[in-house]
Amino acid sequence: MNTEEKLNNLRDTIKALESVVVAFSGGVDSSLVAKVCYDVLGDKSIAVTARSETYPEYEYEEAKKIAKEIGIPHLTIDTSELGIDGFAQNPPNRCYFCKSELFGKLKVIAREKGYKYVADGANLDDTGEYRPGLDAAKELEVRSPLKESGLRKADVREISKYLKLSSWDKPPYACMSSRFPYGNAITEEKLAIVAAAENYLRSIGLRQFRVRHHDTIARIEVLPEDIPALLQNGKRKELVKKFKEIGYKYVTIDMEGYRSGSMNEVLTQQKEKG
């Protein structure tokens, strides 16, 4: 299918929803869902962003900007993942607790405001990864228009570019909780340290990166082609100095480079050994 045909399939899927509350993070996936929902359903759609300890201010400001660009009504609610029983202990199914809380609140909003469905930004590629949050979405009957339309991540970017959405080439973003090894308790203090470290990497012009938090050690993941830039022109000393000021004792660069869900690699290894 060409881009227009893919978009029309998505439009048809969304039209059948009639009215919808979109779980809106401002990422490339939820932005496309919000855009097409508003184009097709108008004011029978609303985007809702949840602010929490694990959602940095930078991403929230981006979400507000993109919602304004789309024109969709935008509502902000407050959540606290660290207050959810079982979440802060950081088990492998941590995302299940978070999504259950989020989608539960969005279902209440939908019911109170008269919207028929809650929709998320899950796409077909997500079903091939370890994503406990998908179980929560299924239990709470959350709709996934991108996945239901057979769209993969590349299709989402293709259609977003076609629609001239500014988010079309936005780097993937994951909840800040994904920066911690499973079983390593998550606290506001640790989240603040990681956020400060990632803000620094963003300030020096990097777009795709993660700072994985291993207690006193920062494991920096950047694209392989960006690794040399961190080692040249005094950048290495500057980075180490900044990260130590933030609170790390040791600063490392992961030679494998950035990869989505790298904390899940230990789960795969345990499964293979078991």
From TrEMBL:
<dbReference type="InterPro" id="IPR005232">
    <property type="entry name" value="LarE"/>
</dbReference>
<feature type="active site" description="Nucleophile and sulfur donor">
    <location>
        <position position="175"/>
    </location>
</feature>
<dbReference type="Pfam" id="PF02540">
    <property type="entry name" value="NAD_synthase"/>
</dbReference>
<dbReference type="GO" id="GO:0006163">
    <property type="term" value="P:purine nucleotide metabolic process"/>
</dbReference>
<feature type="domain" description="NAD/GMP synthase">
    <location>
        <begin position="16"/>
        <end position="80"/>
    </location>
</feature>
<dbReference type="InterPro" id="IPR052188">
    <property type="entry name" value="Ni-pincer_cofactor_biosynth"/>
</dbReference>
<dbReference type="InterPro" id="IPR022310">
    <property type="entry name" value="NAD/GMP_synthase"/>
</dbReference>
<protein>
    <recommendedName>
        <fullName>NAD/GMP synthase domain-containing protein</fullName>
    </recommendedName>
</protein>
<dbReference type="GO" id="GO:0016783">
    <property type="term" value="F:sulfurtransferase activity"/>
</dbReference>
<dbReference type="InterPro" id="IPR014729">
    <property type="entry name" value="Rossmann-like_a/b/a_fold"/>
</dbReference>
